[in-house]
Amino acid sequence: MKILYLETSSKNCSVAISDDEKLLCLTEEVSENYKQSESLHTFVEWALEGAGISIQDIEAVSLGKGPGSYTGLRIGSSSAKGFCYGLKVPLIAVNSLESMIEPFLGQNYDLIIPLIDARRMEVYTAIYDGKTGDDVSGTEAKILDETSFTEFKDRKIIFVGDGALKAKEILQLPNAEFNAGIYPSAQYLVKKTMEKIRDKAFEDIAYFEPFYLKDFHGVKKKKSQDLT
């Protein structure tokens, strides 16, 4: 089964294609300017070319559903739904935080905690078992302070994601490691996607919405003064 993967929830615009669990091609780029709107469809074209297939060969689309960048998630969701409608194929959605823990599973960590940077000291996070990948706590928006995660101070933890930078500055956890260079990636959606396909856990394309976790807060424009 040829599957197209889209992950646009962070600074990493990421596209992959697999044949069942075999990864055929990965195209991604981390950009501080969030280039999803200008890069996503080009990356899809490159990934298809690299995999040696055409878009008509795609039999399912998998999306990193968030949490993360509101705009990035809107772009990824709209594109995924468009491909599904046009190709008449199912949509699978995977929590973006789960793609961040995949490279660290089975590496002798008790817990893997992804941290996606939000505003100020806030992060999007969840806690996962370092051996099984099972979630220990639900996904949440959390404001970090000196007491965060202290209940796990005796456990071997790795914090991953761009939110790990500010976490390292304030957390008092002697057994913790921090890896800030990790972003959600389409290549790590494959395992969970195959599980959902086996369980027929498909999304309703008409009603699907990304996992925003929080409402969008735009910048309010100042009212212009009436000089008359």
What key phrases describe this protein's structure?
alpha/beta; Nucleotidyltransferase, domain 5; five-stranded mixed beta sheet; 228 residues; 2 domains; 5 helices
Question: In words, what does this structure look like?
Answer:
The protein has two domains: 2-96 and 184-198, Nucleotidyltransferase, domain 5, CATH 3.30.420.40; 97-179, ATPase, nucleotide binding domain (Nucleotidyltransferase, domain 5, 2-Layer Sandwich), CATH 3.30.420.40. The radius of gyration is 19 Å and the shape is globular. It contains five helices and ten strands, in the order βββαβαβαββββαβα. A five-stranded mixed β-sheet has the order 3-2-1-4-5, with helices on both faces. 42% of the residues are buried. The longest helix has 18 residues, at 70-87. The N and C termini lie far apart (67 Å). It has helices spanning 36-51, 70-87, 96-101, 164-170, 190-198; strands at residues 2-7, 12-19, 22-30, 60-64, 91-94, 111-117, 122-129, 135-143, 157-160, 176-179. It has 228 residues and is of the alpha/beta class.
